[in-house]
Amino acid sequence: MAFVIADPLLRDGSASSSHRLFAELWLNITQSRAGMTLGPPPYSALSLLQTVHSTLQSHELHVRSLLRQVGIASELLRSSTWLNATYPELPSLLSAMRDLKATPTTSKIEELVARADEMLLAFHDTRVTSHLAFILGLSDPVALIRETRDFVADLISLNHSESFLFSWARARIIGDDVCPAQGTLAARLTEFADLGRARRFIVAFVVGPSPGHLPHSDIFNFGHKNLVPFTTLAITTLPGQSPAIAHVDAPDYKSAATFALGELHKYLQSLSYSRRTRRIGVVSNDIYVRSDDGVEITLPRESIRDYEPPAVTMGNSLWLCRRSNPALASALGRCLSWLGSSERVQGEAQFVHLWLALVTLFETDDVDAIVPPLAR
Asked: Which of 249, 280, 303 is at the close of a domain?
């Protein structure tokens, strides 16, 4: 479903066609109903380069898989209009990638790591601002669409929540009855340059049933005496329950809540095993977040969910496939069956189902990694 913005909100006299297209693209890319062809790609050019950089140093992948990852990264970097226009040393990086693919030696890996270090350092402080300014200055709509999708993917790789990017931008582009859009569209779009910056958040929720005193961690404090006072929000507990307070750095309040919930799960798994500790979990329906500028927000727990890709349908596509290639249709059918069943299980069982889906699809058990779900 396309998200169409009312014309008066875009045609304010100061906005160029690039500004108007960027505004409509942003809301269509980040809305939860966006299809895979319009939604953000799984990685941006710079985030994939970061992955390649860390992989080269960790030696975690087989050489064949490593070279495949380097090849994908080189194609993505080569097709980036922004990086080609703003980073003069990009040809040297691409040359180092070609040399490594031709001769995968230790010296070639060290050379590529050094080149990647230089590029990531060059964009360390201007990663968001430079990309945004370049996009808003584009006149080619095809390049603008490609760079906007890459820009959103890069913000997600910087730990932004995708649903936050939609709601935050919607409030600034369109506004609402409480706070209508102020100023020109060009001025409102300059606020996007503040995205990607880590901020300090306090996240609080109620856990239970409490086994008594819970030891503090680097992130968490437990108990009412450690509860940071919220000015506008009241956190109530019942007997046998305890507030959990986390201090986290995140780019937005939703990603802060997601991170805190994930860290709580790791913390509880690290406790000495007993039936009482294994029963502990979040029991409050709301999550309370306070930002470093004093803004306090109550989030329903159901608003914090894992990223869910668009549903895969098995109808006409498999019917057409069955007529042309029965063997491929059979493999796809088995893969989709394992993929669907993985949604009904958790933990190691879910990992096994996902692994079986990959093994069925590629007809090999040489699976490098299964990436955990992203926060939506």
From this structure: 303
Please tell me the total count of domains within the chain: 3
Domain boundary (197, 227, 259) is at 197
Angle at 40 between CA 351 and CA 338, to 5 degrees: 25
Residues 159 and 289 in one domain: no
Judging by DSSP bridges, how do beta strands 281-282 and 286-291 pair with one another?
unpaired
Rounded to whole angstroms, the Cα distance separating 285 from 183 reads: 37
The residue type found at 193 is A
Distance CA 165, CA 92 (A): 34
Residue 27's CB is within 10 A of a number of other CB atoms, namely 19
- My answer on whether 66 and 136 are in the same domain is yes
- Asked if 55 and 115 sit in the same domain, the reply is yes
Q: What is the pLDDT of residues 98-150, one digit of tens each?
A: 999 999 898 999 999 999 999 999 999 999 999 999 999 999 988 998 999 99
Can you spell out the DSSP letters for 57-114? HHT-S-HHHHHHHHHHHHHHHHH-HHHHHH-TTHHHHHHHHHHHHHS--HHHHHHHHH
Cα–Cα separations (whole angstroms), residue 38 to 142, 167, 189, 210, 268: 13, 18, 21, 45, 38
Name the burial class of residue 256, with classes exposed (0-12), middle (13-18) and buried (19+) by CB atoms within 10 angstroms of its CB: buried
Indicate if 150 and 6 belong to the same structural domain: yes
pLDDT tens per residue, range 267-316: 888 877 666 677 788 888 889 999 988 889 888 887 776 544 444 444 44
